[in-house]
Amino acid sequence: MPPQQYDMVSLLKMLIDRDGSDLHLAVGSPPVGRVHGHLTYFGERNLGPEDTERLMKSIASVDNQQEIQEVGGSDFGFAFEDVARFRVSIFKQKGNVGLVLRLIPNKILTFEQIGLPQSLKQVISQPRGLILVTGPTGSGKSTSLATMIDYLNTEFDHHIITIEDPIEYYHNHKKSLVNQREVGVDVPSFSEAIRRALRMDPDIILVGEMRDLATIEAAVTAAETGHLVFGTLHTTGAVRTIDRLVDAFPTNQQEQIRTQLAGNLKAVISQALLPRKGGFGRVAAFEVMITTPAIQNLIRDNKSYRITSSIQTGHKYGMNLLDEHLLALYKKGIITYEVASGRAQQLDEFRVAARQLGLEDAPKEEPEEEVKPR
Length: 374
Hints:
Layout: H1 8-17, E1 20-25, E2 32-35, E3 38-41, H2 49-57, H3 62-71, E4 73-80, E5 84-93, E6 96-105, H4 111-114, H5 120-123, E7 129-134, H6 141-155, E8 159-164, E9 177-182, H7 190-197, E10 204-207, H8 213-224, E11 228-233, H9 238-247, H10 254-264, E12 265-275, E13 282-290, H11 293-300, H12 307-312, H13 322-331, H14 337-343, H15 347-356
Parallel strand pairs: 7-11, 7-12, 8-9, 8-10, 10-11
Antiparallel strand pairs: 1-2, 1-6, 2-3, 4-5, 5-6, 12-13
């Protein structure tokens, strides 16, 4: 019997059919899919160096292959039939080619479908300012941003410019005009793309990743000059996000950036993506900070550590802490106590709150067996 031959089309269809999020291809292991947060084999035969090389060449352009040879890796996006797009990371490990493909569904979800608070619709409809969506890699930031951009695209006549690396969700022109620029393809860098965008009569600019000082400076300046700017950071929680932005600047500029943030930051939405109880599907938990005059003063006065209490008392403005949302999801039986407490920002306080609600002693499910790669 001939050995099992893997082909990219079959593997991607398998990932989509199983409602998976990522496909991992590494020498010495069968293909592995991340399904509902867990790693699962998509075959029995281990991949060899010739397999990953062949699978890589089936999706990578000549330029991407050249980049892999020169710098040991390449990132790009590609469309798979009419079903979905994938964000691809190709890399060298132990001299062999490895691949990770992240599924980006073609269908943009609504606020209701991903659980984004309805109060954010008013926040993102403001004519100017900075709105940050934060969280670790894989927490659904791109999905949330796509939902917000789609809402604005549907409801308002704006010129929307997105700057991404790579482009993930594709937006059609609706009531708004949407131009999407890919870093490394359409423009050399995020900071350069923002500077050029300011000459393109924009109303809204989405910055896919605020990864360096030049990009942060350009994004804050764009917000300050009368545009609505969306950006992402790999931070968890509003306090850490503000501290991360300020700490990116030299000491002699930190007072100035605090003043700029106090005047221009409209909201910080921090999120985590969690496995549902029972193991089928995932659910997002959100922390929402809306910049009130009190929070503006805390940012300006370098008292960001007091923002947490302002969020706790700001429910009437649509604010909530991540731990509050985790507790609500656990109370409704959507996630387990282990998952909720594992993502809590203030674990001791979370345990006390769960105990007060009589939740902490709820029966715990036996953890499901996970299929781990060998």
